[in-house]
């Protein structure tokens, strides 16, 4: 058994698709109409057959509350691995990404946290 799709709630699928593809550089894999919303997944350009990230609409009240509470408490909803966190931080800052935590060493790891503009905090990590 392996993880093939993981999801994050977003407040606007179009805005999320633009941010995750154009700003972060993920590759759109699926964009399928499902009634009012769409099944939109992205993959890493480094592993296009790898785990897909689903941009899940937060239209359910429980999903919206969950997302808002995590954000308010400063808790990232997911983590992405990067090879060089300082280079990634600089590149994303130049693209206007707002960080709530700049690269910070924690043991053998260095992490940083940014706002995805769609209701989430995202953590990046370098081992």
Topology diagram in text:
Elements: E1 5-10, H1 13-23, E2 27-34, E3 37-43, E4 52-57, H2 61-72, E5 78-81, H3 85-94, E6 99-106, E7 109-115, E8 121-126
Parallel strand pairs: 1-4, 5-8
Antiparallel strand pairs: 2-3, 3-4, 6-7, 7-8
N-to-C series of helices and strands: EHEEEHEHEEE
Helix % is 25-40%
**Total individual domains:** 1
Total strand segments: 8
Report the sheet-strand fraction. Answer: 35-45%
Inertia-based shape: globular
Overall pLDDT metric: 97
The major pleated sheet works out as: 4 strands, mixed
Gyration radius (Cα, Å) is 15 Å
Multimer state: single chain
What is the highest CATH level, the class?
Alpha Beta
Summarize the structure.
InterPro entries: Glyas_Bleomycin-R_OHBP_Dase, Glyas_Fos-R_dOase_dom, VOC_core. The chain contains 3 helices and 8 strands.
Commentary on this structure:
It holds the Pfam family Glyoxalase. It comes from Cytobacillus praedii. The strands form 2 sheets. A 4-stranded mixed sheet has the order 1-4-3-2. A 4-stranded mixed sheet has the order 5-8-7-6. The chain is built from 3 helices and 8 strands. It has a single domain (about 5-125), classed as 2,3-Dihydroxybiphenyl 1,2-Dioxygenase, domain 1 (Roll). The model has no long low-confidence stretch (mean pLDDT about 95). The chain has helices spanning about 15-25, 60-70, 85-95; strands at about 5-10, 25-35, 35-45, 50-55, 80, 100-105, 110-115, 120-125. The chain is about 25% helix and about 40% strand. It is of the alpha/beta class.
